[in-house]
Design a protein that fits this description.
The longest helix has 15 residues. Helix 7 packs parallel to helix 9 and helix 9 runs antiparallel to helix 10. The mean pLDDT is 95. This protein has a single domain, classed as Aldolase class I (TIM Barrel, Alpha-Beta Barrel). It is of the alpha/beta class. The chain has an 8-stranded mixed sheet with strand order 1-4-5-6-7-8-9-10. A two-stranded antiparallel sheet has the order 2-3. The chain is globular and about 55 Å long. Strand 4, helix 2 and strand 5 form a beta-alpha-beta unit.
């Protein structure tokens, strides 16, 4: 396989056929992300992509899902994405769903007709990293999209008939904007009501601008119970309009949660409040076990 650099994928795509279509991220300015700092965004040539598909298809694994990496395949012209997906399905008749990361800018560049064409060709889920529902937090971390645009993009994905999976980051507002970040993010997720939502916990990586801000004293991460309080506030304000499977069980999180909203919402809030009341470190994931 012609994998270049760090090829990342969502946790739910662990058993998928992973095909690296692009190298890097078209935005690559977020202050917290160190994944693609040494990579210039580019599309891999189609011959290489198809060779990788051929090789992966030869494993006879019987893949049911495929995922197109890296950070922003959806920014590519539709005809190129369609060619890749059609080739994957030709070589792997067992494929039921293809997934892709899609940032807000990339989604909004697509017309409703283009998104429907992708859906009809097998694109079943789009993973959208929104990080926060607070405009000032998004401005500070240089996300490149404000809440109203994220909402517009989310609606386009769902209207095209694709599943929407969104991720947010606990702690990304620092101690200064912790409460505002948590409340606004919860309301934002409720308004968008994705089928899947996940809360990760920000970790300071040495090759990022956010790390440098922390070293200079201009950014302070909430402590573990501060992160947990953010999670509580987020869920309190996350009043979804349709069923949503919510997780905070990523390796970076202190308290693993898997729940179906809205039915489990009050039970999850009660659990978090109980842990916050006890403030017992033994109830949380040890620091040495946390990772990206």
């Amino acid at each position: 396989m012609d994998y270049i650099g760090h090829v990342i994928r969502p946790p739910s795509e662990a058993y998928s056929m992973i095909i690296q279509v692009t190298v890097g991220c078209s935005h690559n300015q977020c202050t917290f992300c160190g994944t693609y700092k040494d990579q210039k965004f580019r599309l891999k040539d189609m011959a290489t992509i198809k060779r990788d598909i051929d090789e992966m298809s030869s494993y006879r694994h019987g893949f049911r899902k495929a995922f197109l990496a890296d950070g922003d395949v959806l920014i590519l012209p539709n005809e190129e994405i369609l060619e890749i997906m059609q080739y994957i399905r030709k070589k792997n008749p067992t494929i039921e769903r293809i997934g892709v990361y899609g940032n807000t800018k990339a989604i909004l560049k697509k017309t409703p007709e283009e998104l429907r064409a992708l859906r009809q060709s097998g694109l079943g889920i789009v993973y959208q990293g929104i990080e926060s529902g607070n405009k000032e937090v998004l401005r500070r971390v240089k996300k490149g999209a404000f809440p109203h645009k994220q909402l517009e993009a989310a609606e386009k994905v769902k209207e095209a008939g694709m599943l929407l999976s969104q991720t947010v980051l606990l702690g990304i507002g620092g101690t200064e904007l912790s409460e505002e970040h948590a409340i606004d993010t919860g309301k934002h997720l409720g308004a968008m009501s994705p089928q899947y939502a996940g809360a990760l916990t920000v970790m300071l990586l040495p090759n990022t601008e956010l790390y440098r801000q922390a070293q200079e004293g201009n950014f302070v991460l909430p402590d573990k119970f501060g992160m947990l309080n953010e999670l509580r506030l987020m869920i309190v304000n996350m009043k979804v309009k349709s069923p949503c499977f919510f997780t905070s069980n990523h390796a970076s999180n202190y308290l693993p949660i898997r729940a179906s909203f809205p039915e489990d919402r009050h039970k999850v809030i009660a659990l978090i409040e109980e842990v916050l009341k006890k403030r017992d470190d033994r109830l949380l994931k040890p620091e040495h076990m946390r990772a990206l």
